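re the bet — no i am not wrong, look at it urself. input seq straight from the record:
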Amino acid sequence: MIIAITNEIALDDNELSFSFIRASGPGGQNVNKVSSAVQMRFDARASPSLTNDVSTRLQKLAGARLTLDGVIVITAARHRTQERNRGDAIDRLTAMIAKAAVAPIKRKATRPPKAAKERRLDAKSRRAGVKTLRGKPTAGE
């Protein structure tokens, strides 16, 4: 199965590996019996679906979810069933990849206009005048 993320990026289901673990929290006896939480692993460095730039941005976005080997580990335990937790983990990964796929806009260096510089300096001198009036009177006054 292929997971479409953007027009250019699509993941193959074989790139994801899932393991099912027991979820913590409320749920009665079901918590002790059923492994409904999902731990999904995705190798961001070795993925053929991602370009080098997207992979680099994705690894930065992953933060603490990234292992030293470049594998992103997502744990999903919000729902009571394996299927819904599996879908939740895939949705979270696809959202992260879609965010990493958007290249940041480069900032263009600009200079402030002369009028803006003059306004700033005028405001500074006005403020300095107010502050000098607040000071203690000198001996000559």
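see?? The beta strands are 2-4, 10-12, 16-21, 37-43, 71-76. told u. also The CA atoms of residues 112 and 118 lie 10 Å apart. so pay up
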